[in-house]
Structures are given as structure tokens and as C-alpha cells.
Sequence to fold (153 residues):
Amino acid sequence: MKWTTLQDGRQIPEVPVAAVKFQPMWKVEGVDDPARVLRFITSTEALDRDNDRVRQAGHSVANYAKNPVVFWGHEAWTFPVARTIKVQPFLNVPVPYTVDTALFAGDDQRHPVAETVYLLARDGFISAASIGFLIEERRPHDPEDAAAMAGAG
Fold:
């Protein structure tokens, strides 16, 4: 996948929305190692592997902000590996996206899984992740999707 660097130094996926059938939803964008903070793209308007497109302008984090924890592998029944400290949407770009900044737990919290996830993400060994979301409104985004939705009914 190609990435375009914006004037402010941020990177965005370099893909036209209509041409994408699958887009990785995660990329480490910045590291503050002493603070154990990673900034990463958590969502884009590109189609995901389930053929969903999350509109970033309608991406509500109000409920998430009450307890902004990050789980490894959507395992909400376990302890979180990080806490989100900032959610920032970028809407005025060709493929809108959202960047999360997360503070990771680790050895100080006696959390070896969080330590492992942090180190693997920091060093580029983890290259895919996703947000959890509930669909409030669903609309087909192209004729093929409309046909698929009509058949799934």
C-alpha cells in the first residue's frame, strides 16, 4: 500500500475510495517511546474486509470516551492493553480517516500482554487492527453492494 505524506507530516492511504475492495485499517503513525504512546490510524472510509465503509464524519466516540480502553483482538472480557488519550478525525482528505493516540500499559502494570502488543506495534510486527462499532444506519455504497444487500435480506 502506498501512503501520501501531508504538509503537516501525517500520512494517509493513497487510494481512491471507489477502487478499494480491502484496506488495512491500522498503521502506526508516531511513537513516543519513553511515554509508551503510539498514534495510529484506526479507521478509514475505505472498504474493510467485511465490505463495510465507516463514514468518519458519522463516527461517534461519545460512548467510547466514557471508558476509552483498547483491547487486543477485540477481547473485551480481558484487561485492556492501552487507554486512548485522543481521537482525531481527518475529514478533508481524499480518503477520510481517524487517528487514535493510545497510552499502553506494560511491565509497570504487570501486564505482559500489553507489553508485548506495544513492542510488536512499535517495531512494526503488527500491521492490522480494527475498531469495534455498531451500525446506526446502513446504506449501500455502490451498485454491487446494493445487490448483495438485497439478496441478504
